[in-house]
């Protein structure tokens, strides 16, 4: 396993390459997401260089998922039509080979979204993104957190993440002070970011959309999904760190984050990245 591990410089270099390719391609990123964060999510994608499309209408979502580069399904406000649109979009994505991200917002104690999350995860998402409590609940190892807030740490959710990755063939990203991203064999840990991300509605949800955009780019270039999800996380969290330097609070941070996502250059990632990769046996990256 150790021969497969990459040094931090290589992980950052892959992220830089994908960011450049994303901006050149402007991947069409289909988002079925919650009503609270739709506008912020679209603006994050636009700032990054992707093309957002918020198509959640039954009769259109499946068709659109087939032509999009990547799909996000976020379960934050799963009304009846949106639940059906999500199922339709996932079927369309799978039929077309479109990579897709499942964000199981607030699963666990809330029965409607929890049942839907279990239905969708069985359709083998390319990636699953959530906080530690959501990942534990999706794996059936916890009742979930406090609404959308995690009450567990990413380290506590590592076994759950490995289980989900192994069972469904997904890359699993556990968000937290240190993001943990695994394909069931390897884990990438990213320590970039800022606590102000937790003070802005959509800070985590928008990351799921960024992952979908990077996965769409990765599909076109033949890049491994683990690398794409790690790249998305690194770019987003480095931009958040830079935004926090000039922000005076959550409001100015949200605006600064958009500006930094637009401004960040691929060559800047290497110096900013606080990242390592290891085998899930606990072996350290070289």
Q: Mind sketching the topology for me?
A:
Elements: H1 8-25, E1 28-32, H2 38-48, E2 51-53, H3 61-67, E3 70-74, H4 80-96, E4 100-103, H5 111-121, E5 127-131, H6 132-138, H7 158-168, E6 171-175, E7 179-182, E8 186-190, H8 205-221, H9 225-246, H10 250-263, H11 269-272, E9 275-279
Parallel strand pairs: 1-2, 1-3, 3-4, 4-5, 5-6
Antiparallel strand pairs: 6-7, 7-8, 8-9
Helix pairs in contact: 1-8, 1-9, 2-8, 2-10, 3-4, 6-7, 8-9, 9-10
Features:
alpha/beta; UDP-N-acetylmuramoyl-L-alanine:D-glutamate ligase; disordered C terminus; 9-stranded mixed β-sheet; 286 residues
The overall average pLDDT, rounded, is 93
Q: Major sheet: order of its strands?
A: 2-1-3-4-5-6-7-8-9
Structural class: alpha/beta
CA-based shape: globular
Q: Helicity, in percent?
A: 40-55%
Radius of gyration: 17 Å
- The poorly predicted ranges are 282-286
Measured between the Cα atoms of the first and last residue, the distance is: 11 Å
SSE run: HEHEHEHEHEHHEEEHHHHE
* CATH level-two architecture: 3-Layer(aba) Sandwich
Count up the domains: 1
Count of DSSP E strands? Answer: 9
Number of helices: 11
For the record, what is the CATH homologous superfamily label?
Answer: Ribokinase
CATH topology: UDP-N-acetylmuramoyl-L-alanine:D-glutamate ligase
Largest sheet: 9 strands, mixed
Beta-strand content bin = 5-15%
């Amino acid at each position: 396993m150790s021969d497969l591990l990459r040094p931090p410089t290589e992980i950052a270099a892959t992220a830089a390459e994908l960011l450049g390719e994303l901006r050149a391609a402007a991947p069409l990123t289909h988002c079925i997401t919650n009503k609270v964060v739709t506008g912020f999510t679209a603006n994050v994608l636009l700032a990054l260089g992707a093309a957002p499309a918020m198509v959640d209408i039954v009769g259109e979502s499946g068709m659109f998922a087939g032509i999009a580069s990547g799909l996000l399904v976020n379960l934050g406000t799963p009304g009846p039509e949106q639940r059906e649109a999500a199922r339709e979009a996932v079927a369309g994505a799978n039929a077309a080979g479109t990579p897709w991200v499942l964000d199981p917002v607030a699963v666990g104690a809330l029965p409607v979204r929890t049942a839907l999350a279990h239905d969708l995860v069985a359709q083998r998402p390319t990636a699953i993104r959530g906080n530690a409590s959501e990942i534990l609940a999706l794996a059936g190892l916890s009742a979930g957190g406090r609404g959308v807030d995690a009450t567990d740490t990413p380290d506590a959710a590592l076994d759950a993440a490995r289980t989900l990755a192994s069972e469904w063939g997904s890359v699993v990203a556990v968000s937290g002070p240190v993001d943990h991203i695994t394909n069931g064999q390897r884990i990438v840990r990213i320590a970039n970011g800022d606590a102000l991300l937790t003070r802005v509605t959509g800070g985590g949800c928008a990351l799921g959309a960024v992952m979908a955009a990077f996965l769409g780019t990765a599909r076109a270039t033949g890049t491994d999904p683990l690398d794409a999800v790690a790249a998305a996380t690194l770019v987003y969290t480095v931009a958040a760190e830079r935004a926090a330097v000039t922000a005076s609070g959550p409001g100015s941070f949200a605006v600064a984050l958009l500006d930094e996502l637009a401004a960040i250059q691929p060559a800047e990632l290497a110096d900013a990245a606080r990242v390592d990769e290891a085998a899930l046996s606990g072996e350290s990256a070289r």
